[in-house]
Design brief:
Two copies of one chain form a homodimer.
Chain A lengths: L6 H10 L36 E5 L3 H12 L3 E5 L11 E2 L4 E2 L6 E2 L10 E2 L5 E2 L3 H9 L4 E3 L8 E3 L9 E2 H25 L5 H15 L15 E3 L7 E2 L5 H4 L4 H8 L10 E4 L5 H8 L5 E2 L2 E8 L4 E7 L2 E7 L1 E4 L3 H4 L3 E2 L3 H9 L1 E2 L3 E7 L3 H4 L5 E5 L5 E4 L9 E8 L11 H12 L6 H4 E8 L11 E2 L5 H11 L5 E3 L11 H22 L3
Parallel strand pairs in A: 1-2, 1-18, 2-14, 9-22, 15-19, 18-27
Antiparallel strand pairs in A: 3-6, 4-5, 7-13, 8-13, 9-10, 11-12, 15-16, 16-17, 20-26, 21-24, 21-25, 22-23
Helix pairs in contact in A: 2-15, 4-5, 10-14
Pfam family, one (chains A, B): Amino_oxidase
Keywords (chains A, B): Oxidoreductase
Protein name (chains A, B): Amine oxidase
């Protein structure tokens, strides 16, 4: 979508295509379209005293979902978690917590207060993710709003406004004004050969004018929508000077996209977060799984014997084996590849094919919530520096301190991954102070997390890559069980990196197993 | 802005104007524009034991601000409030509260729970309203987000989609796609005679494509941005069918405007609300004004004697008079007109000139938060029925019940004003159930408030009308004191109906008085 075209190419395009003509037409079924996500929790057959043993490999949210749901209907479940904590990429760091990055272990030094935490991985819960929400409700996890988009937050690009940050709303209001002028003219073309009625044409023009705050002649000359240069309450509001589109176009295209688009797709619904940290969802599951989770349990081997399946693991120097009916496995595929198993070759090969993302996040505790003095309450500031984003915490509103996301590099391959902790901190400070002059002075107790170096994970979410026939085949193979072994997690979904995907993957696999159990039981 | 034009008029317009040409240009001063609202609290001279008596007429937020600030520097203040409560149009109703509408008194029957309240008047606190926020901070009023815009909320128009409600995001995504196609074509016109460089043109096209999710050829054919028809996690996402612009144009223009525009102007900054009800701000002030507020104190006369000013009031049948140095008066101007006074004729005449708005709000307690099952969390549903809006409470998320705004008619003159309480309730039910079928069954304990009939107020916010020379003169007259008497409140501001305006008005008047006191003191 973002492929740039030259002016010449553009003219050819216009010549070659009919424009809006094909968009016009009558009808289409317009019923209130159902919510995108339906509750997917399977209707499992209760065992009623029959014994079924299940081993869950990995205490990520898909593994915990499995142990929780199967436990409800009578399965005997054990979760083997290799690290000291459950949750995987659902990880909240607070005062005294260990960040277990290989070669860069850190103890978090944030003040010991409930609002001073950092969600190192999962940080946003779209309200359309029904299954995740349902578990929050069921497990008593209290939620609050997460502010993703805030038009009062900033945009920074060295080429824009001489490198001085601008408010999102100043960029977007002016860009929209210009775009509306284009539409106003473009409509001239379109309506000549389109069967708009006068009434439709008038409506469309009215909407276009309102979209951009154009004057009666269809001109944009600034707006009061992006606030006032001064006044507004006791004295008259003074309109801010119009910003010329040419000046806005100095910014990077991706940055303009971030400004102009509101929340879309996964972030279009309301976003939420558990009050006090994302890992409250994990804690909610663990309250229901007491005695069922083994920590520091490193899986060494998985052997499917046809009528049963063995899992061998190492715990505190002891080698232990559990014989089970089924295994559900959310160990990252690229780590599972290195664990002894007797899976079919095509299954092993499919596991090997999945690449992992490299994501980096950094955060500072800020001595003062200086952004609130600049009328920024929550939301994201965009920059085209390597830190990419700054997230202002909304929670803790008007308190003294807050923990701010200071870098979020989800593209992989950036310099952050290869830096020492101190170099990362310095990069975050020097880039942050280009946006907020007081940044360096305010920042304390910085933490950094490179997910592809995190112990027991060594990677962020699965990246399946382009929908090639080969990738597609591998996906199909891994979604199906290998004997009594099910791969689960967001890694086995069409939309990795979301909790909802991990949960739905677990539901899918349990439903599949349930059919087998029903068949065995002659049900 | 919303004046419709016919196709013929439109063609003339296009012919008559040069389009985007004038928008293009180099430069303009683009510094990070300051926040629109500055803290306006005046630097008052402390009295240091000198005695100064002030009477504040009316316990609205401007009156309380005055008593609070003057009290801090040693003034002896008394607030005379005619009703049983302070706050004026800052009014939160909970279990057992009286709604003091003349001819329609109601006792609120909501369940007695903290999240089951209704803000009958002021309901949104823009984060740019610095003075209001500062008082929240100073008075220990805890705030939370208010969700104004929610693209998952609904749009309803009998002419749109056969009267079946649609999600806001389905309308806006499809409308934007069409608009982007128009721009894509319109750019052709524009760039021919504009000095865009190839690079600028490419950027602009890229931004336009991304704005509307157009394909490589600049065509819009639906999007995944408004969610999926199905799938998305375990199975592939299925794109929703494109909705044709002609079908969207069936809706009322004003409704389309509400859909397409995000929060703008006063609601563009983050919006907040005090946790537990807007009147917590009033309670915050009252904690600082103990013993200084007289309730049921009806002002009968104000007489300025040049060197002092007398206020006579009736309290529980007693006629009392206070002699003061200054009076600050936030009694609604149209009521003050009927109270005996010796103000100059032009001042009285200016008071008479201000019209008042008629606003109507209604609310139901809902037995279940059925909207959350439809993935609506907070925000506004727009309809072109007389109820105009439905507001879904975000607070109380995932609890059983919630109080929903069921009608908000701010236009005045609607039928609601002239209906009995029962007729209003029935209108709210029958219109609400066109949007949510289960509405009638879920609704209980409805309340209705017609502000122009509320006791001691008889009107909503001041409506100054067009900026005619006469109105302008009246504004100037009323902003200045009449002798020792200051009119205050949002009624004496350029933007009535906001708490910020009322507060700034009080600040302005106190600063004016402070200059006089300093002069008297020879300071």
């Amino acid at each position: 979508m973002s492929k740039p075209v030259t002016r010449r190419e553009f003219l050819n395009l216009i010549a070659a295509t009919g424009g809006v003509a094909t968009v016009l037409g009558v009808g289409g079924a317009l019923g209130l379209i159902p919510a995108s996500t339906q509750a997917s929790v399977p209707n499992l057959m209760p065992l009623n005293g029959q014994r079924r043993r299940v081993v869950v490999l990995g205490g990520g949210i898909s593994g915990l979902t499995t142990a929780y749901e199967l436990g409800k209907v009578g399965y005997d479940c054990t979760v083997l978690e290799s690290s000291h904590r459950c949750g995987g990429r659902i990880m909240t760091v607070r005062h005294g917590d260990l960040i277990d990055e290989i070669g860069n272990p850190q103890i978090c030094k944030f003040d010991d207060e409930p609002h001073l935490y950092f969600n190192c991985g999962a940080a946003r819960l779209p309200s359309s993710h029904k299954n995740t929400l349902n578990y929050c409700k069921e497990l008593g996890v209290e939620l609050e709003m997460f502010i993703n988009e805030n038009k009062h937050a900033l945009v920074h690009d060295p080429d824009l406004n001489g490198g001085k940050p601008m408010r999102n709303i100043d960029v977007s209001t002016n860009l929209k004004g210009f775009m509306a002028e284009l539409m106003f003219k473009g409509f001239n073309n379109a309506e000549l050969d389109q069967p708009f009625t006068d009434d439709e044409a008038a409506k469309l023009l009215a909407v276009i004018r309102q979209f951009g705050d154009l004057d009666e002649d269809g001109r944009y000359s600034g707006s009061l929508r992006n606030g006032y240069a001064s006044g507004g309450f006791i004295s008259d509001p003074v309109q801010k000077e119009m910003i010329h589109v040419r000046d806005l176009l100095k910014a990077n295209t991706g940055l303009l996209r971030s400004v102009l688009l509101e929340n879309e797709g996964e972030t279009a619904p309301m976003l939420m977060q558990p009050i006090g940290g994302m890992d409250n969802i994990i804690k909610g599951f663990l309250r229901k799984l007491e005695g069922k989770v083994e920590y520091h349990a490193m899986v060494m081997a998985v052997h499917d014997h046809g009528d049963q399946i063995d899992v061998t693991y190492d715990q505190n120097g002891q080698r232990l084996t559990i014989t089970a009916d089924y295994v559900f496995n959310c160990i990252p595929s690229h780590l599972m590849v290195g664990i002894e198993n007797n899976f079919p070759e095509e299954y092993r090969s499919a596991m090997k094919s999945i690449r992992r993302g490299e994501a980096f996040k950094g955060a500072f505790q800020m001595k003062q919530r200086f952004w609130e003095n600049e009328e920024i309450y929550g939301g994201i500031t965009w920059t085209n520096q390597p830190i990419r984003q700054i997230w202002y915490p909304f929670h803790g509103l008007l308190k003294q301190k807050g923990v701010m996301l200071a870098a979020y590099d989800y593209g992989g391959g950036s310099g952050f991954m290869r830096m020492t902790h101190d170099e990362r901190i310095e990069a975050m400070l020097s880039q942050g102070e280009k946006i907020h002059p007081q940044y360096r002075e305010m920042a304390e107790h910085g933490i950094t997390i490179a997910w592809h170096r995190m112990n027991h994970m060594l990677g962020c979410s699965a990246r399946w890559g382009a929908r090639t026939p080969e990738n597609e085949r591998n996906y199909q193979i891994l979604q199906q069980p290998a004997g009594r072994h099910y791969m689960i997690g967001d890694q086995i979904s069409r939309k990795s990196a979301w909790m909802e995907s991990a949960i739905q993957s677990a539901h899918w696999a349990m439903a599949h197993m349930d059919q087998r159990v029903r068949a065995e039981a002659g049900a």
